[in-house]
Specification:
The complex is a heterodimer of chains A (267) and B (619).
Chain A lengths: L1 E10 L2 E11 L4 E5 L6 H9 L6 E6 L2 E2 L4 H6 L1 E4 L11 H11 L4 H14 L15 H12 L6 E5 L7 H16 L3 E5 L3 H7 L2 E6 L2 E7 H11 L3 H11 L9 H13 L5
Parallel strand pairs in A: 3-8, 3-9, 6-7, 7-8
Antiparallel strand pairs in A: 1-2, 1-4, 4-5, 9-10
Chain B lengths: L4 H4 L28 H6 L4 H26 L1 H32 L3 H37 L3 H6 L4 H35 L3 H32 L4 H24 L9 H10 L9 H13 L3 H37 L13 H9 L4 H15 L2 H19 L11 H35 L2 H6 L4 H31 L3 H28 L8 H5 L2 H32 L1 H8 L2 H38 L4
The chains are: A alpha/beta (267), B mainly alpha (619).
C-alpha cells in the first residue's frame, strides 16, 4: 500500500532522508524507529503529502503522492503527534467537517461519528469545544477523525504521546483490529515497547538512512539468540553512527532537528 | 533477519532487501470495512460541496467566536467598537471639513474636481500599496504558517479550494481596515458634493472590488517569493519594505519641502497635486476607483458603471489567476518552505548585557532577571520592531512638527501642540505596556516552577519587571518629549514639567501593567498578543488611559495655562480677575503634589495588589 522508491529529502544542504526504499503491505503494522533528527517525521510528511521528495517517489495505494495527491490522500488517515484541530469547534463538528471532506453523506457521517465516539470513548465530551479538551482527549479525537472513513492506510506519528495507559491499551487494540481488517498502519514511535508489541515489521532509520529492517518474529528470534532487548539493538545501531552528526552542516542540522522537534508543521 | 552481520559488531550496514518480510494479507476479522481505493476517490465531494464544507467550517468557528465574545469579552468588544467609531467619526469630520475647505478655497469647479481627483488617486494609491504589503504578509501567514494546514493538506481537499479558503480570509482581514479608512472619506465627499443616491449605493461594491485587486496581487507575490526564493523571503520583504519606506519618506519630504507657513494654501495644494500626478496613471486600479466614484458623484452614472465593471472584472481575473497559480505551485511552495534550513547562530553577550549586569544599581537577582528580559526582548524582532516603528514615526513627526501648522509661531499653537504631543507619547506608551509589559507575568508564570527552584522570591520577579518596564520606557519617552519641546521652542519651565510628567507616566503605566499582569495572569496562553487581548489587557488599557488623562490634567495642563497667563494678552485679561489666577496657582501646586501622589499610588497600589495575588498564585 505504501511504496517509497529511492526517496531523498534535503533540508538546505543536510540530507534528511537519504535514498529510502521500502514498501509496507496491506494490513501490516509497520513501526518506524529512530533517534531525534533521524528522518522519521520527514518520511511521514512525505507519505502524507505535506512534503515533496527532493528525488524519488512515494506512492500510496498505487497513487503518486505528488502527481495524484488528492487520490492518494483519499486513502489516508493521518495522526500527527501534536493534534491540529479547530479550537472553536466541538468534537462532533470537527468530525462532521472531516466526514464532508471525505465525501461521506450526512447519515453515514453520523453513524460513523457514533461508532468512533464509542471506539475512542469520546461520548462525554464530543459536543464540547475542542479548546476544553486535554492533550490526550485531543489525540483521541484526532485518531477518530483519521479513521472516520475507514482508510486503507493510517499514518501515525508518535501514537502514544500524551495518552494515559488505558488510552494506550485502547489504541493498541484499535490499531490491531484495524490492521486485521486490512488497514495498513505506518507509525513512527520512540516507545520501543509499543513497536515490539504490535508492529509486524520494524524499521530503524538513522541519519536519513534505513539501517535495519525486519519482521517481529525475526527480531524476536535474533534478540533471543543474542540475548538482547530491542532497546539494546536500537542503541547499538544508532550509537555507532552518532558521531557522524557532528559533521552535519549547521543549517541543515537545524532544519532537520526542527522538523523532528515539531513532528508536525503546526508552527 | 535483515540485520547485516556488521551491525552486531558495531558496524552498521545498509539493508538491501527493502520489502523484507512484506506479506500482502487478506483482511481478517477486525470488524471494519476498509474503503477500497476506487471507492474513496469516487465519493470525494465535488467543488460545490467542498466549498460548502469550508464555508460551514468558517461560519461555525466565527459563530463560536462571536458567542464567546458576547458572553465573556463585552468590555473589550465595546471598547473596540467605541474606539473604532470614534476613529471613524474623527476621520469623517476631518474629511467633511477638508472637502468644505477645498470647496470654499477653490472657486473654479474644474480645478476643484481636479484637486479632489488628485486627493482620491493619491489616497487610494497609497492604500493599494499598503494593501498589497499587508495581503502578502497575511497570505503568507494563512497559507504557510497556519496551524490547520497540517490537517487541510493531508485531507483530500482540492488545493485550489484550500487556497481560496485562505484567500477569502485574507480579503476579509485586509479589507475591513480599508473600509474603515476609505468609507469616511467617500461618504464625506458625497455629502459635501450632494451626490446622487446611486453614488452611495455603489460605494460598497466599489470598495470590495478594489480590495480584491491588491489582495490578489499580494497573494501572487507571496506565492512567487515562497516558490522561487523560499530561503530569501525575509530579505525580499525587508528590501521591499525599505524601498516603500524610502519612497514614502521621499514623497512626504518633497510635499513638505515648500516654504514654512505656506502649507494647506491653494497654491500649495495645486503644487502638491502636480507632484502627485504619478498616482493618476490610468492603468492603476486606484484611478479606476477614484474616477468611477467621481463620475457617480457628478451624475455620470453610465461612466461610473463602466469603471465599476472594469474593477470587478480585473478583481475576478486576478482571483482566478491566483487560484490557477496556487493549484499548480502552492503544494510545492509549501513543501519547499518547510524544508528550508535555518542557521543556528551562536548567541554571545553584547556590551549592553555586561553593562546591565555590572552597572545597574539593583541586587544581583534583579539584574539577572533584567538581563534575561532584555535578551528576550532584543532577540524577538516582533517586540523591538513595534517600539522602533512607533518611536521612529513619532520622532520623525516631532522633528518636522513646525511644518505642520501655519500658526507655528503663535504661543497658543506651540503650547497646545507640545501638550498634545506629550499626551500622544503617553497613549502610545500605554498601548506598548499593554502589549509587552502586561503579558510578562503570564509568560513568566509558565516558567515559575523553574524560577521557584532557583530560590528566587516572587517579589523579586515583580520588581525586576517594573525596573525593566520603567527603564525601557523612560529613556525613549523622555527623549521624544524633549525633541518635541525643543523643536517647538517652549520655555524651560514647561520642558521641566513635561519631563516630570513623562517620569510619572512611565512609572505609573509600568506599575499598572506589571500589577494588573500579576493580578490577572493568563498562563494558558503563550502568545503575548492573545494575553494582551483578553479582559486583563483591555482593563489595563482602560486604566492606563484614565491614568494618562489624570496625570496630564494634574501635572502638565496647569503649567500650560500658567505660561499662557504670562502672555501679554492673557495678562491683561487676567489682571481684572485675580480669582482666576489664584485658582490657577492652586491648581499648579495642587496638581504638582497631586500628580506625584497619584504617580506613586498608580505605581505602588497595583504592584501591591499584583504581588499579593502573585505570591499565592498556584500553577
Amino acid at each position: 500500500m505504501i511504496e517509497l522508491d529511492n526517496v531523498s529529502r534535503l533540508y538546505g544542504r543536510k540530507i534528511a532522508v537519504d535514498q529510502l526504499t521500502m514498501t509496507v503491505a496491506r494490513g501490516e503494522i509497520f513501526a518506524f524507529l529512530g533517534p531525534n533528527g533521524a528522518g522519521k517525521t520527514t518520511t511521514i510528511k512525505m507519505v502524507v503529502g505535506l512534503l515533496q521528495p527532493t528525488s524519488g517517489s512515494v506512492r500510496v495505494g498505487g497513487h503518486d503522492m505528488v502527481a495524484e495527491a488528492r487520490a492518494a490522500a483519499s486513502l489516508l488517515g493521518y495522526v500527527p503527534d501534536a493534534p491540529c484541530l479547530y479550537d472553536k469547534l466541538s468534537g462532533r463538528e470537527f468530525l462532521e467537517f472531516v466526514g464532508r471532506m471525505r465525501g461521506l453523506d450526512p447519515p453515514e457521517t453520523s453513524e460513523r461519528i457514533h461508532r468512533q465516539t464509542e471506539d475512542f470513548r469520546l461520548g462525554e465530551f464530543i459536543d464540547a469545544l475542542i479548546e476544553t479538551y486535554s492533550h490526550g482527549m485531543q489525540q483521541r479525537l484526532t485518531f477518530a477523525a483519521a479513521l472516520l472513513h475507514d482508510p486503507a492506510v493510517l499514518v501515525v506519528d508518535e501514537p502514544t504521546v500524551g495518552l494515559d495507559p488505558r488510552s494506550v491499551r485502547l489504541l493498541k487494540n484499535i490499531l490491531r483490529r484495524r490492521a486485521a481488517s486490512g488497514t495498513t498502519v505506518f507509525m513512527s514511535t520512540h516507545t520501543l515497547a509499543v513497536a515490539e508489541e504490535i508492529a509486524e515489521r520494524i524499521g530503524i532509520v538513522h541519519q536519513g538512512r534505513l539501517r535495519f529492517l525486519g519482521t517481529r518474529d525475526e527480531v524476536a528470534h535474533e534478540l533471543r539468540s543474542e540475548n538482547l532487548s530491542l532497546e539494546d539493538l536500537f542503541m547499538r545501531i544508532t550509537e555507532t553512527v552518532a558521531g557522524g552528526q557532528a559533521e552535519e552542516s549547521e543549517s541543515g542540522a537545524s532544519a532537520a532537528g526542527r522538523a523532528e522537534r515539531e513532528d508536525t508543521p503546526c508552527d | 533477519m535483515r540485520v547485516p552481520p556488521g551491525a552486531r559488531s558495531g558496524r552498521i550496514l545498509l539493508v538491501t532487501d527493502h520489502s523484507a518480510g512484506t506479506v500482502e494479507r487478506a483482511p481478517r476479522s477486525g470488524g471494519y470495512e476498509v474503503s477500497r481505493g476506487a471507492d474513496c476517490v469516487a465519493r470525494l465531494p465535488g467543488p460545490d460541496k467542498e466549498g460548502c464544507a469550508f464555508w460551514q467550517l468558517r461560519l461555525r468557528i466565527a459563530g463560536t467566536q462571536v458567542r464567546q465574545a458576547l458572553a465573556h469579552s463585552r468590555l473589550r468588544l465595546s471598547l473596540i467598537g467605541s474606539l473604532s467609531l470614534l476613529l471613524w467619526l474623527g476621520m469623517f469630520w476631518l474629511f467633511i471639513d477638508g472637502f468644505r475647505f477645498l470647496k470654499v478655497t477653490i472657486h473654479h469647479a474644474t480645478t476643484y474636481d481636479t484637486v479632489v481627483e488628485g486627493v482620491f488617486a493619491m489616497f487610494f494609491t497609497a492604500l493599494m500599496v499598503m494593501l498589497v504589503f499587508s495581503s502578502a504578509i497575511l497570505v503568507y501567514g494563512f497559507l504557510f504558517r497556519a496551524r490547520d494546514l497540517t490537517l487541510l493538506l493531508s485531507l483530500p481537499a482540492r488545493i485550489e479550494r484550500v487556497f481560496l479558503h485562505k484567500f477569502q480570509d485574507t480579503v476579509f482581514f485586509s479589507s475591513w481596515a480599508f473600509l474603515l479608512l476609505g468609507s469616511p472619506m467617500l461618504l464625506a465627499y458625497g455629502l459635501v458634493q450632494h451626490a446622487p443616491w446611486y453614488y452611495f449605493v455603489m460605494l460598497l461594491p466599489y470598495l470590495v472590488a478594489f480590495a480584491y485587486i491588491p489582495t490578489g496581487i499580494g497573494a501572487l507575490v507571496c506565492l512567487a517569493v515562497v516558490y522561487f526564493l523560499p530561503r530569501r523571503r525575509h530579505h525580499v520583504l525587508t528590501v521591499a519594505a525599505v524601498t516603500a519606506l524610502i519612497a514614502a519618506v521621499w514623497i512626504g519630504w518633497s510635499l513638505m519641502a515648500g516654504p514654512e507657513g505656506k502649507l494647506l494654501t491653494p497654491s500649495w495644494i495645486q503644487q502638491t497635486i502636480n507632484r502627485l500626478q504619478f498616482s493618476g496613471q490610468q492603468l492603476l486600479p486606484s484611478w479606476w476607483l477614484s474616477s468611477g466614484l467621481l463620475e457617480a458623484a457628478l451624475h455620470g452614472w453610465n461612466h461610473s458603471v463602466l469603471f465599476l465593471s472594469v474593477l470587478i472584472s480585473n478583481a475576478l481575473l486576478l482571483r482566478q489567476l491566483a487560484i490557477y497559480i496556487a493549484g499548480r505551485y502552492y503544494r510545492t511552495a509549501y513543501s519547499q518552505l518547510h524544508a528550508v534550513g535555518t542557521a543556528r547562530k551562536k548567541m554571545k553577550p553584547i556590551w549592553l548585557d555586561r553593562l546591565m549586569v555590572r552597572c545597574v544599581p539593583f541586587p544581583l537577582t534583579v539584574r539577572l532577571m533584567l538581563l534575561k528580559d532584555f535578551r528576550l526582548f532584543r532577540r524577538d524582532a516582533s517586540q523591538w520592531s513595534q517600539f522602533l516603528l512607533f518611536f521612529a514615526l513619532l520622532g520623525f513627526y516631532f522633528l518636522n512638527i513646525r511644518r505642520f501648522g501655519s500658526q507655528s509661531h503663535t504661543v497658543g499653537w506651540v503650547n497646545m501642540m507640545s501638550f498634545v504631543n506629550l499626551t500622544v507619547v503617553g497613549l502610545i506608551l500605554s498601548t506598548l505596556t499593554t502589549r509587552h509589559v502586561f503579558p510578562m507575568i503570564s509568560l513568566e508564570g509558565r516558567r515559575l516552577w523553574m524560577l521557584g527552584l532557583l530560590g528566587l522570591r516572587r517579589d523579586t520577579i515583580l520588581w525586576s519587571k517594573l525596573a525593566f518596564a520603567v527603564g525601557g520606557s523612560l529613556v525613549p519617552c523622555a527623549i521624544l518629549v524633549l525633541i518635541s519641546d525643543v523643536m517647538l521652542g517652549i520655555p524651560a519651565l514647561l520642558q521641566l514639567s513635561h519631563q516630570w510628567t513623562c517620569l510619572l507616566l512611565c512609572l505609573g503605566l509600568s506599575g499598572i501593567a506589571v500589577g494588573l499582569g500579576a493580578k490577572m495572569p493568563n498562563t494558558r496562553e503563550d502568545s503575548p498578543p492573545r494575553i494582551a487581548a483578553g479582559f486583563g489587557g483591555t482593563l489595563n488599557l482602560v486604566v492606563s488611559a484614565l491614568y494618562i488623562v489624570l496625570i496630564v490634567m494634574l501635572a502638565a495642563m496647569p503649567w500650560h495655562l500658567y505660561v499662557l497667563a504670562q502672555h501679554q494678552s492673557a495678562a491683561e485679561f487676567l489682571a481684572d480677575r485675580p480669582g482666576v489666577l489664584r485658582w490657577l496657582h492652586l491648581w499648579l501646586w495642587g496638581g504638582a503634589i497631586g500628580s506625584a501622589v497619584l504617580g506613586i499610588l498608580a505605581t505602588v497600589v497595583p504592584l501591591w495588589v499584583g504581588l499579593r495575588a502573585f505570591q499565592t498564585m498556584e500553577l
